[in-house]
15-cis-phytoene desaturase, chloroplastic/chromoplastic (Glaucocystis cf. nostochinearum), 403 residues
Amino acid sequence: MLQLFKELNIEDRLQWKEHTLMFNQPEKPGTYSRFDFPPIPAPFNGIVAILRNNDMLTWPEKIKFAIGLLPAIIKGQRYVEEMDKYTWTEWLQKQGIPERVNKEVFIAMSKALNFIDPDEISATILLTALNRFLQETNGSKMAFLDGAPPERLCQPVVDHVAERGGQVLLNKPLKEFVLAEDGSVEALKIRGIDGEPDELVKADVYVSAMPVDIMKLLMPDPWKQQAFFEKLDGLEGVPVINVHLWFDKKLTDVDNLLFSRSPLLSVYADMSNTCREYEDPDKSMLELVLAPAKDWIGKSDEDIVEATMLELAQLFPKDIPNGAKLLKSKVVKTPRSVYKATKGRQEYRPSQETPIRNFYLTGDYTMQMYLASMEGAVLSGKLTAQAVAKNAPKHIAEKNASA
Ligand SMILES: Cc1cc2nc3c(=O)[nH]c(=O)nc-3n(C[C@H](O)[C@H](O)[C@H](O)COP(=O)(O)OP(=O)(O)OC[C@H]3O[C@@H](n4cnc5c(N)ncnc54)[C@H](O)[C@@H]3O)c2cc1C
């Protein structure tokens, strides 16, 4: 992601925050427990951050956790991948780490990373994140984009493509892959919008950047029998809900991401403090993630806002329910978001190269080391581009042969 911002020359749009992880303390409503990372290289900044925090973990718990983590630190990514056969809770038990560590820290972290609980999430996900925190000095440092992503991040990407002779066409949903006799892609059928007819688009090489659930829906029948594509059945998007709340007064001055550690909510931030576009010295604008969302995705917006406000009463007891008035709310439901990273999912993640000679996959669910995240999506795009470039001579030869 950072490299992308650099290439687009928009690094100044990243608003970096103090290097700390902040957790609400349910037993002391309205207060925070912090893991402060000092400005020294990794892994020492992370170790100091953990050792200095005495609100959430006792010394015996910290020592047991550090010992449990040793194999991941010493053996690295190979061990991390092998642990995909366990959920995070199973892995903690296997390593003799007390269950309280889960409750105190990792329910919040697994909800933040994949919108599910530690009893479901693969140990690989948490271990990958922890390894990054321990290996990269700024691996856990938060940055907020300074405004809405479509204008502040996507538009520069579009401009970059256009300046180099490319085109980005919006509102062109894929309806069908039209196949040639040998099962390769002959054309894309694009659904006409607003009464426009469908159209066919032909190319030398085709890349799907659609989410895995949509890719499965549009999968041509002849591909479904191939083991490579059959594996995608093992991946499915997880539901999540985003809640945006506007208040008539300031609830907090915290200028960072917060882990709510409450049953329904995951991470949240007061965007009036964290993000230039929503800056307001007098009123708060909270953005919250509600997860796990499987029991809530079918509920009404009113029910969701009501339940969120009940939890906010624990986080901001001075102002909610009495004091601050809710001016406006917006609920964004995503029934199938990133792939649900339960144990054993790694083996279902496909490579970017497929058995179809002119067809590639990309997206965060394809195999890459940065999990289901924006960073993972960007890395998968780079891996796809590398694969296409590597195969370019073959594609050119095929094109010349068919001309
Ligand atoms: C609530 C929420 C909070 C998140 N917070 C973070 C965060 O803080 N940090 C982070 O790194 N990640 C975060 N993520 C995850 C991040 O958004 C994803 O990992 C990332 O967007 C995946 O990118 P992608 O390109 O693989 O897929 P997507 O971003 O899902 O892109 C797929 C695209 O395919 C398009 N599409 C769908 N159907 C068709 C069709 N038929 N034809 C053509 N196009 C189609 C869609 O419109 C979409 O633009 C969050 C996700 C959610 C839901």
